[in-house]
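Support case: glutamine complex. Customer-provided input:
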Amino acid sequence: MTDLRLNPIYAEMPVTVFEHMSGLARSLGAINLGQGFPDTPPPPALTAAAIRAMETRSQQYPPSMGVPELRDAVAAYYGRTQGLALTREQVVVTSGATEAIAAAILAVVGAGDEVLLFSPAYDAYAPLVRRAGGVPVFIPLSPPDWRYDEARIRAAISPRTRALILNDPLNPTGSVASPEELALLARIACEHDLVAICDEVWEAVRFDGLAHRSLLAEPGMAERAIKIGSAGKIFGATGWKVGWMVGDAALTTVLAKAHQFLTFTTPPMLQWAAAEGLADPAITDALHAEWSASRGVLIEGLSAAGFAVLANKATWFACIDLPASGIAIDDRTFSERAVREAGVASIPLSALWEGDGGPTTILRLCHCKPPAMLEDALARLSAWRASL
Ligand code: GLN
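Agent response - structure generated as follows:
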C-alpha cells in the first residue's frame, strides 16, 4: 500500500464532535441542540445589508486586512460596548474566529514553544498549537465553578511557555472570568512575558448583567493580547464566517501576514453587512433579548424535567450534570443514545477535554432555538429519560 505519510496530527484525529453530532442529527432527523447555531435566520436588516452590498458594491477581493468600513465599525463597537480605544490599524478581519485563532497561533507559536490551554477547551486550539510545532499544556478547570487557579497556572509554566489561550466567556461551560481572575491572568502574562490569545467570541452573549471586559484592557496587556471576535456569534449568523483579531498595531501587522496566507481575505459583501450591523445597537439588543428568553426556556424546562443544570452566565449553552440528575451513564453514551433514541443531539463535555481526569458526566445543550423546538426537545428528553 502507498505510504503517503500524511501529517499524523490530522491522519489520526477523529472528525470534530460538532460535525459528528450535526451529521447524526441530519441523518436521523433529530433536533440538534449540539453544535451551537440559531435555527432562525439572522436579523432581516443584516440580510438586507448583505444583499444590497452584493448587488451594488464589489464582490472582488477586498483588502487582505478587511474593508475599512468593518475595521472602523469593530473599533467603534468595542469603544461603545467595552470602553476600548482602538483604531482601524488595530483590526484584522478574518474568515471566522477559527481562522483568527489559527492565524494568531501561527504568528506567535514556534517549534517547542509551550502554550497554556484551559480544559475544557474548543477542540481547535490544541491541534493548531501542535501543527505550529508547539506543545499544548493543559490546565484543568473544575466543575461546578470552572475557576482559574493561581497555583495550577503557575505550576504549568516553564521557561518554554510562550503564550496562553483564554476563552472568556467560556464555551462549553458558560462561565465568565471574574475581575480578579482577569487581573491574575494579566499579572502572570506580564511576569512571564506571554502573549495572550483571547478568544472572546461570546462577549456579546452574557446574561450576568455585567459588561464584558477583555483581558486586553488589563494593565500591561495592550501590547501582548490578541482579542478575537466573531460576527457569527454577535449576529447569530454562524455560516457567515466573519471574524477579526484586534491588538496593538505592531502585533496586528504580523498577524495580518499569517492571515494573508491562510484565507487572504473574507467575502466583502458580508464584511460591509457586518459593519452596518455593528453600528446598530437595536439589532444586537434584540438578539440579546431573544437569547435571554431561549436560555430561560431551556434552563427552566430542563429543571422542571428533573435535570440538574449547572450555573451559566453566558454563551448559547447550558450544561447538565448527569449523576445529579439521577442518570447513571457517562456523557458520551448519553449523547450517542439520546440522538438515536430520543431524537435530540447534544455535546458531551468530555469531547472537549484532552487526556484523562476531566469530568465525564456533563452534557452541553444549545438554547438559541425557537421556543417550540426547545419544548419538543425537552418533551423528548424527559420521556426518554423515564425509560432509562
Ligand atoms: N463553536 C461551536 C460550538 O461550540 C462549534 C464550532 C464548530 O463546529 N467548528 O458549537
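The mean pLDDT is 97.

Case will auto-close in a few days if no follow-up is received.
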